[in-house]
Design a protein that fits this description.
With 148 residues, this protein is an all-alpha fold. 32% of the residues lie in helices and 0% in strands. Keywords: Carboxypeptidase, Hydrolase, Protease.
Length: 148
């Protein structure tokens, strides 16, 4: 977005020299990836000041290609169910740890993301994860070395 703002501002002298039937408005938003706070304020300002546009240019990172639409997104939830068992059966095949299989699923999705150029998301579909926490436990017998 900052590059787009810089280009628009640098073109201002040329735009002012052009003959126009209507004014040119620059409108910048902020926080569009998470809460869209700027969008709400921008819409209120346009309404309160009777700003009406016949067209607009929207600056988004597009790899310097012209884009005439926005990407769609798809959201889904996955629930992985396992088979509960005492931790002493963890490696015997008597249990099915849902966390282990969810981890395998996430790993596979990441591999697929490389093909489709997507990523696992964070707080919104356009925001990447800030943190991840996984708790694991080891039930070791007296002669089993503990991982460090």
């Amino acid at each position: 977005m900052k590059g787009f703002v810089a280009v628009c501002m640098s073109l201002t002298p040329e735009l002012l020299k052009m003959k126009r039937a209507k004014p040119i408005h620059f409108a910048w938003s902020y926080d569009e990836e998470v809460s869209c706070l700027g969008g709400k304020e921008l819409a209120e300002f346009a309404r309160d000041h009777d700003v009406r546009a016949e067209g607009c240019l929207i600056g988004e990172p597009t790899g310097m290609t012209v884009v005439i639409a926005h990407k769609g997104t798809s959201h889904f939830w996955v629930r992985v169910r396992g088979k509960a068992a005492h931790s002493s059966f963890a490696l015997t095949g008597e249990s099915c740890n849902a966390i282990d299989y969810a981890t395998k699923l996430i790993t596979k999705l990441r591999e697929m993301a490389e093909e489709y150029r997507g990523t696992a998301h964070g707080t919104t579909s356009r925001c990447r994860s800030q943190r991840c926490r996984r708790t694991s436990s080891v039930a070791a017998t007296p002669r089993t070395p503990c991982p460090r």
